[in-house]
Amino acid sequence: MPVLSAEQAAELHICFVEDVLAKLLVLKNLASVELHTDVLTEAWREFPVPRAVQCEGDLGQRMLYAIEQAFANGQEQALIVGADVPTVPIEYLQEILASPADVTLGPTEDGGYYAISVRRAHREMFQGVAWSSEVALEQTTQACQAQGLTVALGRPWYDIDGPADLVRLVTEPTPPRTTEWLKKHGFLTGVKHL
After folding, report:
1. Is residue 194's pLDDT more than 60?
2. Alpha helices of the chain — where are they, by DSSP H?
3. Backbone region of residue 44 per phi and psi (left: phi > 0; alpha: psi in -120 to 50; beta: other values)
């Protein structure tokens, strides 16, 4: 927004989540997939994945809760991928999953990160992180290292946060559901999808 209305932004977000879920399901031999939302929703029912409602708190508290739940359920590793990276190459996610570090982050060009893989966690691994800022990646790295966790970085990518990112999105190949939405609303004419 303001390039998109609130309704259009919500519709595009739904497409982003669909494309990210479809991508993650390709990795199901490497990881089980769950969908964590902030409220109960009927959206994305075509994806047969377990669902959970996020806990209260900031992004770090919600991610830590999801990570702890994964470990409590017997998982040896947790991967969290943001919904705002529908174009991230699947190879980047595979590399993050394959990293032996306690924590592996997929950096975004704006100073945040699009994914985090955790093999070993600590209750204070997100302590002091300024979320949605240009220092979120740096502060997460520092907080993890301060707790004795090893940290590695994956390859950088970009996320879709604002109008400039939307301009970039429509100039590059996009995944199927995002492509359909962009075409339907006149943002794409003849651009191929991923």
Report:
1. no
2. 6-26, 59-72, 90-98, 136-146, 163-169, 176-184
3. left
